[in-house]
Amino acid sequence: MSRTPQDSPGLTVVHDAAELVVGPDEGTSVVVLEDAAFAALDGEVVAVGPTDEVLAEYPVADADTAIDATGKTVLPGFVDPHTHALFAGDRSDEFVAKLRGATYEEILADGGGILRTVDAVREASDEELAANLTGHLDAMLAHGTTTVEVKTGYGLDTETELRMLSAIDAAGSDHPVDVVPTFMGAHAVPRGMDAEAYTESVVSDQLPAVAEQGVAEFCDVFCERGVFTAEQSRRILEAGRDHGLTPKIHADEFAAIGGTDVAAAVGAASADHLLHTDDEGRDVLVEAGVTPVMLPGTAFGLGADYADARAFLDAGHEVALATDFNPNCFARSMSFVATLASVGMRMTPHEAIRGVTSAAAGALDLDDGTGTLRAGSPADAVVLDVPTASHLSYRFDTNPVSTVLKSGVVARE
Ligand SMILES: N=CN[C@@H](CCC(=O)O)C(=O)O
Ligand SMILES: [Zn+2]
């Protein structure tokens, strides 16, 4: 039975799972139970363990929602901590141009890429923007995502950045997926301005207006060769922090220009991409407690070398994973990200599961148990029609998700 999120979910029981992932272990992997169940009351997990023990306390007969997961695998709902999922227009022609040899940086420097999407977003109505995002949230939910971060950054002026935040708020408040909004006015330098003047306008004009609107939780910057320098990135993130926004940063995607030092200096929640991060950059992030977020879909789409996830994992540090869904990386499925993380970055399936659940929640500073299925966690869960958790990475043909629970309610089946 499916209820709307507004209803009181009562007792939810998911039982007889062949495997159930509880949450992180003491290393970089996850704790997996066999023949397991969990029970939730009003959207909060109250018991996890062997099916017979959970059902002795919370019988199926008493449940408002009961799911028989025999032969299936249950995971915490996926958390996607890095997306640019609110956009308009179509850049599939750039995909073809890249196949013919054009690079991402050349396309952006020529006024394409992000700047073309900015044109399309400025022309779109508020309703169109919110509807576009709703469609993408539907697709993400169908693939098991129950919490997603969405960035602005296709407005590049105060009015459109605020419109983007309103659209994120409108789509998110009307959808089962939890949406975490990030202000990213410093996503590119708009045509006709230089980076220094634009940095000043982000700090002096956009950020105060964003803070007054009160929707954004994080502030992000594209710290990159030809976009924003480390110094400009730091100024923007510090100003954002002064306005109550937690810093995040796009670092080392095409070149290492000091983004990891900035991340550490401003106390960023995460540093994302990290395709060109060396040992020193890695140590800087780890010592500062910045969560590394890797986006293997971006490397896959660009035909670039993958980030060095193993360097973090082998040193005992976890790695978060995200889709980076945007017009340059049309990927909404976290299970495909898990496959790319395993094949491209040699992450074990269990490390990848941690990457798309609890580690990803860490990249969003979520400390309420999101990304785990333990007593006290939100009852956000994915039932996969596969016999073991490792199949999340192993399979890359059809969507393995059979049911998605959000706060104990069936949100998708
Ligand atoms: N690299 C910067 N931003 C996005 C791409 C956005 C776009 O190309 O529209 C990213 O994280 O990959
Ligand atoms: Zn990004």
Question: TL;DR of this structure?
Answer:
The chain is of the alpha/beta class and 413 residues long. The protein is built from 16 helices and 16 strands. The chain is globular and about 65 Å long.
Report on the structure:
This protein is an alpha/beta fold and about 425 residues long. It has 2 domains: about 110 residues, Roll (Urease, subunit C, domain 1); about 280 residues, TIM Barrel (Alpha-Beta Barrel), CATH 3.20.20. Strands 1, 2, 3, 4, 5, 14, 15 and 16 form an 8-stranded mixed beta sheet that branches. An 8-stranded parallel beta sheet has the order 6-7-8-9-10-11-12-13. Helix 7 links the parallel strand 8 and strand 9. Helix 5 crosses helix 6, helix 7 runs parallel beside helix 8 and helix 9 runs parallel beside helix 10. The longest helix is centred in the middle third of the chain and has 19 residues. The N terminus is likely disordered. It binds N-(iminomethyl)-L-glutamic acid (NIG) and zinc ion (ZN). Zinc ion binds next to loops. N-(iminomethyl)-L-glutamic acid (NIG) binds next to helix 4.
